[in-house]
Amino acid sequence: MEKTLSYETPKEHYVADACVVWCYDDRFSGLLGALTKDLKNYDLVKVAGGAKALAGDPSPERNFVLGQITTSLRLHGTKRVVLMLHRDCGAYGGSKQFADPDAEAAFFKDQLAAARDFLKGEVGDLPVDAYFADFDGLFLLS
Ligand SMILES: [Zn+2]
Q1: Ligand 1 centroid from CA 11, angstroms
Q2: Taking the model in full, what pTM does it have?
């Protein structure tokens, strides 16, 4: 193999402040950076739809995302999980699927609650924070 880039990657293992499940829609990458700017280390599961698979029925996708999270916990002693869904997500068909912006936000609130409830049943006492990402900020599910 030919070295194409020189870069010093730290060799030390770490404890992850969070495992973040985020949609790969790059419009929300800046928001991810703002959310994680004060974290020392975090594991990122960046997949289409973010936490969508965790809100649904049993599926290979749900098993995959859950496996990524439990592997983060096992390898990095992860302290909490962050789940994200966002407005105008292509994995859900986009905003055009909803009658109006409030209906869309209400739908995602229910999806986030379902994803969080499922995950809490799998990871016990670990904190799980569920966020709705909008174009003007980030909203934590209470
Ligand atoms: Zn998306």
Answers
A1: 32
A2: 0.96
